[in-house]
Amino acid sequence: MDLLLQNLKTFWGYTGFANFEWSYLIMIAIGIIFITLAIVKDWEPMLLVPIGFGMIIGNIPLFAGLQVGIYEEGSVLNILYQGVRQGWYPPLIFLGIGAMTDFSALIANPKLLLIGAAAQLGIFGAYMLALALGFSPAEAGAIGIIGGADGPTAIFLSSRLAPDLMGAIAVSAYSYMALVPVIQPPIMRLLTTNKERLIRMKPPRVVSATEKKIFPVVGFLLTAFIVPSGIPLLGMLFFGNLLKESGVTKRLANTASGPLIDVVTILIGVTVGASTQADQFLRGSSILIFGLGALSFIIATFGGVCFVKFFNLFLPEGKKINPLIGNAGVSAVPDAARVSLNVGREYDKNNYLLVHAMGPNVAGVIGSAVAAGMLLGFLA
Amino acid sequence: MKKALLIVCTLLICTVARSQSQSHMVINEYLVTNVSDFQDDFGQQNGWVELFNTSYGTVDIGGCFLFAWKKDGELVKYTIPKGDVLTKIKPRQHVLFWADNLPKHGTFHTNFVLSEIDSIAFVGSDGRTYIDKVAIKDCGEDVSYGRIADGGDEWGVMPNTSPSTNNSSLDAKSKSMIMKESDPIGWILSLTSITVVFLALIILYLIFRHIIGRLASRSTQAKSDKSVNAAEKVNIADHSSETFAAIALALHLYNEENETHDDESYVVTQTHTDRSYSPWSSHIYGLRETPTLKKNRK
């Protein structure tokens, strides 16, 4: 009988209940909130469901040495986490993004590229704020990239510059990407006049197949020569796009934009979520990162919209750009472009800005990858 | 003939590729007179030569040579043995050869002593490619001569001997720390980076706006000119997105009438009709042949 009781007592010591701490419960609750937001509100479900469930997986109380925790070398989760830690997953996601992205809007109206550059102001605004709050330059760079509104880039850069903050940065980046429809519209309304919101833009010209084929090659050569440290992201992005546009690698493009990106999204989501173990995540710095992340999105939106207003000063009547597409310069594809469409239609039911907003939106993907390359070159 | 040519080309490429990787090795430092400096595994003090892998990939130096020209002009060749795992030099790492004329002591003991040598060379595994060659200069007891920075071009007397380690100690400060001192507010980095982002995208804009856009537009127009009658020239750019929207709507309605559309709204369903037959997916190839009975002849 004593032996049985002793065994039960030992077993109790192995359970999650015996190792329970309130911090784990908080993280599990955050995970459940993520899943709820994804299912009920339909906010970035492809990301929030894996991340939310990953948070639950990573916050089951364990005792050390069980070889199942994400930070225990050799455990299954740890092996899957290496893709995040070593930065393998983000370039693979970029391959899929490239294979899914149609750069036609950008090629048809290349000046929209500049909006994508202006919206990167969020990255550097947050970088300077993070420095002022006492983060080291490397940490500040990793935090600043949240403003690029690009989850894979944020993971890639933070894994190199500030691995300890990666969980908070990744969760913050994906959370705010999901909140783009909530964060951006008030800023857009605040910065624009009624007259500006009603600007109608000319339909973009038809882009030939040849131009689409040339774009990834020229785009890659140019950006990679300027910022070689961005090669993993830029190379995969443009390579994926070439697979799509070449017309002769349909199977490869379909795999990259379908099964491959799905598999990597699942792995990156679950492992990033699981990496937010309470003892690693619930710190004062995480709260600061969340605050800075929100500010970076606000600055990025501000940068994009104000740049369009400034740019309009030099454009003749009839060629002016609707500043409501300025927000799309952050690379949350296609949510930011959808926000432009929805806000635009609030003021003019027949003004469809989506096709125009896709230009700065995809330019933002290129811009954030270039910015990440710059930060990597200066700070890694 | 073609096959032979292909094999020769492949071998040539392999040889070139191999010698290319070996070409990243340099003679990095040497000590001629070792009186009270480092000892080898046998407790002996002898001169040494240090090589450095300047590349970011592992280089196998097995089969390469160290050529040493004595002061009387005689050439001594030392072949670095193949198959030793230690001859695979990791990226940015060093390897040390004891110049003790005791090659039986192992892979890293040469068949010459530096005090008798006028110059040495590191030679590729083909025995002909001189990868690096230096004149030997005796700087005195326990004083080595080497590249000021590992793999760099500038040579000098080393303040301390540094066999198998960096010639100059690396700056302990990380880039991040340097940036913190030089740009505490972060505006220099921010301004530089945003300028570069703009620059990259402006160049891309200019290329597409003024070169590729125009070329493609001309080519499209030329094709369009060829394909239609001279009387009915059609400019593709004249078609607005409304035209395409109308086509899409017509297709959508057609599909709906024919019940080929699924439940999604605002989505035009194109039915896939290709038959992607492949022998790999054919069940017939996965089956055994049906056995047949052979009748005995009487």
Can you give keywords for this protein?
A: 380 residues; mainly alpha; B: 298 residues; alpha+beta; five-stranded antiparallel β-sheet; 29% helix
Describe the structure.
The complex is a heterodimer of chains A (380) and B (298). In chain A, 71% of the residues lie in helices and 0% in strands. Chain A has 380 residues and is mainly alpha-helical. In chain A, helix 10 runs parallel beside helix 20 (354-379). Chain A is globular and about 90 Å long. The model of chain A has no long low-confidence stretch (mean pLDDT 90). Chain B is α+β, with helices and mostly antiparallel strands. Among the domains of chain B are: 21-157, Immunoglobulin-like (Sandwich); 172-222. Chain B contains 4 helices and 11 strands; from the N terminus they run H-E-E-E-E-E-E-E-E-E-E-E-H-H-H. In chain B, the strands form 3 sheets. A 5-stranded antiparallel sheet of chain B has the order 7-2-1-10-11, with no helix packed on it. A 4-stranded antiparallel sheet of chain B has the order 5-4-8-9, with no helix packed on it. A two-stranded antiparallel ribbon of chain B has the order 3-6. In chain B, strand 8 (117-123) and strand 9 form a beta hairpin. Chain B starts with a helix and ends in a 41-residue tail after the last helix. Chain A binds chain B through residues 107, 110-111, 113-114, 116-118, 120-121, 123-125, 127-128, 131-132, 136-138, 140, 161, 203-208, 210-211, 214-215, 218-219, 222-223, 226-227, 355, 363, 366-367, 370-371, 374-375, 378-380, and chain B through 174-177, 179-180, 183-187, 189-190, 192-194, 196-205, 207-209, 212-213, 216-217, 219-220, 236-237, 239-242.
